[in-house]
Amino acid sequence: RLRPGAAPMPLKCPPLEQMDRPPARDRAEALELVRRDGLSLGEAAKDFKGDREVVLEAVRQDGGALGWAHEDLQADRELVIEALRQDPQALEFAHEDLQKDREVVLGAVRQDGLALEYADKALQHDRE
Length: 128
Description:
mainly alpha; elongated
């Protein structure tokens, strides 16, 4: 699976039991799927992409799942910080207000300097 907006990379083959699996029918099934593969949020129903608990479990498994979350959740500071713990470059998918948030950006950049690319331009030129 590709992260939203990401360049093609070698594909990881999902376990056989997940191949050709229909999308989650209910919340419990959606939670189970994203706990195993956070990026499966991309295939989830719209309602699950806006469900904070489902998205939180997805980003704990793969921070890049933030790119599939509803925009309101991409602005949820706590949820974004959780995604950045798992994948600092998930800053790319954070709401622009959080890309301007010095504390959020520093946390991501301290883990992976390449995350600076997704920070607000003003912070990119900040020497600290």
